[in-house]
Amino acid sequence: MPTAPMPDDWQRALVVAAHPDDIEYGLAAAVAVWTAAGKDVHYVLATRGEAGIAGLSPAEAGPLREDEERRSAAAVGVTEVEFLDHRDGVLEAGLPLRRDLAGAIRRHRPELVVTMHGGDTWTPPEVTPGALNSPDHRALTRSVLDAVADAANEWIFPELPGPTWTGVQYIAVQSVGGEPPHAIDVVSGVEAAVASLTEHRRYLAALSDDPVDEQARRQVDMATLTEDGGRRVGFRLYWG
Fold first, then answer.
1. Phi and psi dihedrals of 162, rounded to 5?
2. Are 203 and 49 contacting, i.e. CB atoms less than 8 angstroms apart?
3. Which of 31, 124, 142, 209 has its CA 20 to 30 A from that of 219?
4. Which CATH number goes with the domain that contains 219?
5. How many CB atoms lie within 10 A of CB 225?
6. Nearest Cα to 113, choosing from 171, 40, 184?
7. Alpha-carbon distance values, 59 to 7, 48, 92, 204, 224 (Å)
8. Within a domain: residue 4?
9. What pTM did the predictor assign?
10. pLDDT given for residue 35 in this prediction
11. 36 lies in which domain range?
C-alpha cells in the first residue's frame, strides 16, 4: 500500500512520550511543520527522565531534564509541556498510567493524539537484529491507545475532574522502518528539529564525546532522511 499523507483536518494535537528527548528524535520535525502552519500542539511526558543520565542522581537529573525539554519544545513552537511524574525506567502499562493519560487528554482536548513507536525493537529486526526498544516506550504507547477510549467514557475513571473528551479524530503512532502507512513531509521542519534536540545538551553530552550539535543533526538525519533524499516522518494511524 503506498504511503498516504497525514490528515490535516485538525487544529489541536497532543504529543505523548515517555521521557524528555523522546519527541526530539524525529517527531519534533513534524511538530515544527504543524506549529508553523498554525496548529496548536501540546506535550505530555509520563516521566521527567530522572534515571537517564549516568553519574547524575535522579534528584539532580529530573529538574535538569525537565528544563531541557521545555526549551526543546519552545524551539519547535510548543509552549505547553506537562509532566505526569511517573518514575523513569519502571513505567508500567496499567491503570495508574491509563488514568493519568486519560486525565491529560480530557484537559488538553486534542483532535489528534501523537505518540512514539512502541514495538519490541526500535528498528526493524532485519535492519538491526536485537535492538530492543525501551520498556518505558512499550508501556507508554499501549497505554496511550487505551487512554483515548478511557477519556471518552464517563464511567471509566469517573473520579477525574472535568468532562469527558470524545473529540479525538486520529491517533498517530510513529512508524519506524519500511514504508509507513501515512507520512508528513518535514523538509521545512528539519532545522527546528535539530535545534530542538540540541537543547538536550547535558543528556547528549553524557551519551557521547561527539559535539552535541553534531549528535543532534546526525540523529535527526537518521530519523527523517528517505532513500530518495527527501525528509519525512511516518506514522501508523488509528481512528479515535
1. 85, 165
2. yes
3. 142
4. 3.40.50.10320
5. 13
6. 171
7. 41, 10, 21, 18, 34
8. no
9. 0.95
10. 98
11. 10-239
Number of other CB atoms surrounding residue 10 within 10 Å: 18
**What total of structural domains would you count in the chain?**
1
Residue 141 phi/psi, 5-degree rounding, is -65, -45
Q: State how beta strands 170-174 and 182-185 pair.
A: unpaired
Rg (CA), the chain: 17
139 Ramachandran zone, left/alpha/beta (phi>0; psi -120 to 50): alpha
Among all chains, which residue has been given the C-alpha cell 518505558? 136
Angle, vertex CA 195, rays to CA 183 and CA 134, nearest 5: 60
The grid coordinates of residue 232 equal: 519525512
Q: How far apart are CA 127 and CA 112, in angstroms?
A: 30
Query: In 3D, which of 41, 35, 120, 117 has the Cα closest to residue 82?
Result: 41
3 state SS of 174: strand
Q: How does pLDDT run along the chain (240 residues), one tens digit per residue?
A: 568 999 999 999 999 999 999 999 999 999 999 999 999 999 999 999 999 999 999 999 999 999 999 999 999 999 999 999 999 999 999 999 999 999 999 999 999 999 999 888 866 555 555 678 899 999 999 999 999 999 999 999 999 999 999 999 999 999 987 789 999 999 999 999 999 999 999 999 999 999 999 999 999 999 999 988 899 999 999 987
Flag whether 3 is in a domain. no
Assigned domain for 5 exists: no
Give the three cell numbers for residue 160: 477525574
Q: Which long-range contacts (CB under 8 A, 24 or more apart) does 164-169 make?
A: 164/106, 165/105, 165/106, 165/109, 167/109, 167/110, 167/111, 167/240, 168/105, 168/110, 168/111, 168/112, 168/113, 168/240, 169/7, 169/9, 169/10, 169/111, 169/112, 169/239, 169/240
